[in-house]
Amino acid sequence: MRPRIGTYALLIAGSLVSVFPFVWMLTTSLKTSREASAPEIDLLPQTLQWANYTNALYAAPFGVYFYNTLIVAFTVMTSVVITSLLAGYAFARLEFRGRNVMFAFLLATMMVPFEVTLIPNFLLVRDLGWYNTYAALIVPWCASAFSIFLVRQSFLALPNDFFEAARVDGCGHLRFLTWIAAPLVKPSLVTIALFSFLGSYNSLIWPIVVTSSEDMRLIQYGLTIFGSETGVQTNLLMCASTIVILPTVALYFLTQRTFLDSALNAGIKG
Q1: What is the number of other CB atoms lying within 10 angstroms of the CB of residue 45?
Q2: What is the model's pLDDT at position 9?
Q3: How far is it, in rounded angstroms, from Cα 203 to Cα 210?
Q4: How many helices (H) and strands (E) does the chain have?
Q5: Structurally, how many domains does the chain consist of?
Q6: Backbone phi, psi, residue 228, to 5°
Q7: Longest pairwise C-alpha distance within the chain
Q8: 172 lies in some domain
Q9: In this structure, are residues 154 and 191 in contact, taking their beta carbons and an 8 Å threshold?
Q10: pTM above 0.90, yes or no
Q11: How far apart are CA 117 and CA 32, in angstroms?
Q12: Which pLDDT belongs to residue 268?
């Protein structure tokens, strides 16, 4: 019984450590500016300042930012799922010359830091005439080497008997992928969809580089307006952060079961 109590105590302590930043963010958003910037740590505000949320929302055109961000994030998420599904299946099930070499080059791109490709990608976007457009925010991220790798590994884990039985019934590659293989790797597809959505939703540097007008800015740019040379408006920043984080939290809870299934299956070898 004692080992179990120690395990529960450790899990509870870890949960409290993980939850504390979110609790601090929420309580700080309800403080006055003086309370939020005070050097001493006081978790609870003296008086709840609900007007902070109104002030934070009117400090910038967050409606435009949310609209742009959701368009970009959902488009990138859909594109990554489609390209990863097709490329992952090709690398896992199709036999063609140079397949292993191409896959090795694909994995090598994961070793290149984003900062190295920032300027070349910007010059390419500018020369294509995509500067300050949705294309600049979406097209460069429509495929992901990690997502292709993850889907490929999921397809390799499927027994060959599935494809052999489908081929006997006259099922081609595309039909087999759509009706049989894709549903079997659904946890992996949900995982890469979640990661790609979060990557686009939380992006800051690239959208700032390839956009110049307020009409094309994304939501993370809106959080930067609460900092200036005179200091950071901590309470308003926490208000905006609380609002911004809600879609990602909702998306995680919607996909939690499938996401956990993918994480558990990753450690199981059949």
Answers
A1: 17
A2: 87
A3: 12
A4: 16, 2
A5: 2
A6: -145, -175
A7: 73
A8: yes
A9: no
A10: no
A11: 42
A12: 43
